[in-house]
């Protein structure tokens, strides 16, 4: 992942709960939102459940720069949460990560 020309980093992360783990994953993500919003450099951190796809979640995050994102990902609480999350989701965490690059029409 790299930063945008104006410095900020936008991440879209999608995860699907393992069968029978939908409510547990939703509660897990819900508990992680406020601490992540309070991390230095966070601009936005919003969790969503995909309409019509119960158990499929999307988190939209924006960070002031890559260093803040890396600090968030490397925080001790994140290292503790990863093994727990892997018990709840299908596939890997990395499978669902997308870096968004904004673009605008030329003026």
TrEMBL record:
Pfam families the UniProt entry points to: ABM (PF03992)
Annotated ABM domain residues: 9-97
GO MF annotations, alphabetized: monooxygenase activity
Keywords: Monooxygenase, Oxidoreductase
Transferase is among the record's keywords: no
Protein name: Antibiotic biosynthesis monooxygenase
